[in-house]
Amino acid sequence: YWAQTANEVAFSLGYALELEDKLRARERKADALQGELHRKLKARESEAEALRAELRRAKAELDETTKAAVAREELCRKTKARERDTAEADALRAELRKAKAVLAEAKADAGIAVAAARGLREELDRKQKAR
Q1: I need a surface site. Which of 20, 82, 104, 131 has the fewest CB within 10 A?
Q2: What are the coiled-coil residue ranges (predicted)?
């Protein structure tokens, strides 16, 4: 009986040692994988930072190019606007002369209307007094 128990204990201890060796091997492998993952992560972070810096430079260059293009467009717009403004100013002066003539005519008509209204008012007042 003792021999069988001793064999079982020896077997169990051997199995436990074997499992412990496997566990240590897995831990070493996990540590190695974690170290490799950490190195790769650092490399990716460095690559990402380099790409961000390149993107910032490209954006700055694009901003400068855009500003120059906008300035050129603005200069063209102002030149064309000046040409249009000159032509429009001449047309507006002609319209202003016409509008002044229409206004003078409207004032004359208004004067006639006021005189007619006074006449009607006076006539109405006379008719009311006559009653």
Answers
A1: 131
A2: 16-109
